[in-house]
Amino acid sequence: MAAQYGAHEVMELHEVLTDTIDGINQFELYRPYAKDPQLQTIIDRHIQFMVQEYNNLVSALNQQGIGMSGTGYRTPRTNASMSPTYGLNNPAPQTPNTSPQEMNDQDVASGMLGCHKASAMMRMIAAQEIANPQLRRMVQQCAVNSSEMAYETFQYMNQKGYYQVPTMKEMTTNTVLNTYQPAQMPLTGQPQAPTQQQFQ
């Protein structure tokens, strides 16, 4: 009987599923500390989506990924069009809490953001080791979903002033960005191999 999955594939899927369980558990721990109804709604929506995503992935593995596709996370329309606020406005000093009783909405949202960002990176790396095309697409979609939930969390934090976006002077920004110019394509349309003379 031929193997259904490669060794790297199995271990990466194990990591993705474990990370998903850890994320759900982490958000369940955060939930009681969230006081803002808007943040509570975001946490509940993320937990529900992560559980659904976990179940979809487990179902795909049990069915060998046949006919399964990842579901995309959709930020509610009211949040999706929000533009970030740029610049610093008297940011508060940051220090670690000394007890769980000090946890507040900013701490909860920051923990959520870190969890989603780490999951997005880990899942995209994992996708590179998955040979089964349907499972690969599912894990890629999982990475995109984590990125979308991270951005929704960032939007909430930015709106509340918890995550301020530092900027540079306009001249510095323009100088850095204008350093990059369009590349010229070789006449043949194909990259040219270096000649022997170029190596001497």
Describe this structure in words.
With 200 residues, the protein is mostly helical. The protein contains 6 helices and no strands. It is 56% helix and 0% strand. 22% of the residues are buried. The model has no long low-confidence stretch (mean pLDDT 89).
Order of helices and strands: HHHHHH
Spatial separation of the terminal alpha carbons: 55 Å
Provide the structure class.
Answer: mainly alpha
Backbone shape? flat
Q: Which parts are unreliable, with pLDDT below 50 for 5 consecutive residues or more?
A: none
Beta percentage is under 5%
Q: How would you describe the oligomerization state of the chains in this entry? A: single chain
| Average pLDDT level | 89
E-strand count: 0
Percent range of helical residues: 55-70%
Largest sheet: none
Topology (elements, then pairings):
Layout: H1 7-30, H2 37-62, H3 77-80, H4 105-127, H5 133-160, H6 170-177
Helix pairs in contact: 1-2, 1-4, 2-5, 4-5
Which short descriptors sum up this protein?
single chain; 200 residues; mainly alpha
Concise description?
It is built from six helices and no strands. It is mainly α.
